[in-house]
Amino acid sequence: SETLQEMQEISVLSDDPEEAARGTADLKRFIALPENCVCADCSIDLDDPNDFWASLNLGVVVCVRCAGFHRSLGASNSRIKSVVYDKWDPGMVERLVEGGNGKARSVYLERLPKAYNLPDPETDDERMRAFVRNKYVRLKWADPALREAKAAEAAERAASRRAAAGTGGRSGKRAGAMASLSSDGV
């Protein structure tokens, strides 16, 4: 049974103790970077490890409030984990540390107008939720290369779904033809 103190520590789980220690050190180093000590979305200071939440697929560190907005995007858009209270494996840490709030800012906010009033910790929930959705899902201010890559990924997924359905997007049947009732489709 874990003690409360153990639960409040950052740790990475692995069958290999050395790999676990490396992953734990990498995660601690990542959240200690100055760019990652403020929420990527509302810019509140993150002082206590318990305050750090991370989006694995976006590579950003956020506060608990903004983590809720990320969760509302769905796990396919933002997979949120507590740095302290959730279980981490080395692969998750590797994915996360490829990013960082500074890198994400340069990609997701590249085309943000200079006059845009960024949210802060006092921003109301409705505006904050819209900002997070515009930033990460709609890619409203993102680097054009990211927007193109995401559009290509979506098209590829759609084509794969059609191919998996065996239709290629068309039914392949003559209009007005009666469906076969036999088990072999003839």
From TrEMBL:
Keywords: Metal-binding, Zinc, Zinc-finger. GO terms for molecular function: GTPase activator activity; zinc ion binding. InterPro entries: ARF_GTPase-activating, ARFGAP/RecO, ArfGAP_dom, ArfGAP_dom_sf. GO terms for cellular component: cytoplasm. It comes from the Eukaryota. Residues 157-186 are annotated as: Disordered. The keyword Zinc-finger applies. Residues 24-149 form the Arf-GAP domain. Transmembrane segments: none annotated. SUPFAM superfamilies: ArfGap/RecO-like zinc finger (SSF57863). This is Arf-GAP domain-containing protein. It comes from Haptolina ericina.
